[in-house]
Design goal:
36% of the residues lie in helices and 16% in strands. The protein contains 5 helices and 5 strands. It binds FE2/S2 (inorganic) cluster (2 copies). The site of one FE2/S2 (inorganic) cluster has 12 residues, from loops.
Amino acid sequence: MDSVEIAFRLNGSPVRCAVPPTLALLELLRDRFGLTGTKLGCGEGECGACTVLVDGEARDACITLAVDVDGREVTTVEGLPAAVQRAFVANGAVQCGFCSPGMEAAVAGWVAREKALGRADLARAIEGNLCRCTGYVKILDAAEAFARESSS
Ligand code: FES
Ligand code: FES
């Protein structure tokens, strides 16, 4: 199948590449650009381990086609504000850490675009993200701390 030329912004920098039409964004990010912070969990859009931001909205990179980000802005965990990672570490929200890049992307995207930043609102931000270490209380503590810091 012929490759398709795409151009988009990745963590703030313009990039251009040729991709097969069926290539998943997750594979492009990890294998072509070496951005291995974003994880492959279920590969079916169920767990949120692969969450990245596309134009500021959380998207499952495992079920997003690379060709669909042509002309858009993609942010991976490597491009998130350092404060979100600091909040997760400071609040003990990282256990095995497998879900953390996706959780942090979902929280950072929500805080950047939503006005509702209460605990229940932040729970909605991560409703598509599963943590098998069952660390949701501390993850929400971290999300609240980051939201507080971002709005002060
Ligand atoms: S790996 Fe993409 S949603 Fe699970
Ligand atoms: S910290 Fe282990 S899956 Fe969430």
